[in-house]
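hiii, so i know i said id send this last week but things got crazy w the move. better late than never?? heres the sequnce for the chain we talked about at the cafe, plus the structure i predicted for it. fair warning i was half asleep when i ran it
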Amino acid sequence: KVLEWLQCIDCSEKHALTRRKRQGSTCTWLFRDECFTRWYESRGGGLLWMYGKPGAGKTVISSAVIDGLEKRNCTLGYFYCDYQTAGDVQVTDILRSLVAQFFRQSDKNWLPLFPDVQERQSRGFPLPSDHAILLDWLLRSSGLHERPIVVLDALDECEGACGRELLTIISRMNTGHLSFFLTSRDEPQVRKAYEEMYKDAFFFSATISLEEKWRTRRDDLHALVVEELGCRRTLRCLPDRVRTKILERLVEKSDGMFRWAQCQLDRLEKCIGTGEINHVLNTLPEDLNETYYRILSAINEKPFWKRVVLRVLYWLVVSLRPLHIQAVMEAVKIEIGKPTIDDEAGVIDEDCLLKVCSSLV
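okay and structure toks below
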């Protein structure tokens, strides 16, 4: 009951989904990295901040860190600050989730050690909104474990001041036993907060720039593209020389953006011949912004596609839970303000829906 009372957001489903996106041999470079090794061996009170541009694979790397450290018998509390839920997430939600995770993983009878928590729950008191109380609970609950580590992914996607508040709170946690692994884009507000924390708060503190590690990470992108070329039916049937050209061009032009490479594979999958494939490879967009601009421009030229995509995005944004593709297919038949379902507004099958939405969902 206490755990149910505490935890409002469960990131385990997000973690499982992200893990499935990860190729088996990828992300191993990080565990050999000098900064990561020094942070891990600092045995607590350490802070490691990994930053990179959008689409660089930070969330997938976070999932690898969680799984890798669990195999080393560390106790992990983690939170994915996903942009899809960031608008509703408060600092208190994140802290409560971490506390609940550390409680749940303890094999000790921890309730007698936390009479204040038990009393609040049993008396029906509301969850505390005071950061100091939740911070105290986090420090004490993590203290139930020999090697507790917190992983916070995509701090920059927290709404408004949430990310900054969280960093400020972390900077006050010079406990000597709780380590932090953080990821975000290299934004000025995050960097300023990190630099303040670096000066005052931690026994060990370091950063990892994914851009600077690009040569080390090329093998990961190579593995991703090889896997995609082998599992996408249209691309799998191409001649070896064409598949090799796709592989070489995407790895060469990606600039470390895994998401960029996946978007180009989506585009290549729709090509009807090697001539079009060569054209796509010779006119690749420079970055993710240009990639999405091209996708949206192409959709905008097709009125029916545009209507379907807008409805799909609308339902995904307002839905209170993740939607199965079958539910989305039914939802696009609904036009707000009309009393009946418009079957002609639907799509033929799942493949058609995915084709229309391209790389947007």
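btw DSSP finds 19 helices and five strands in the chain. thought thatd interest u
miss u guys!!
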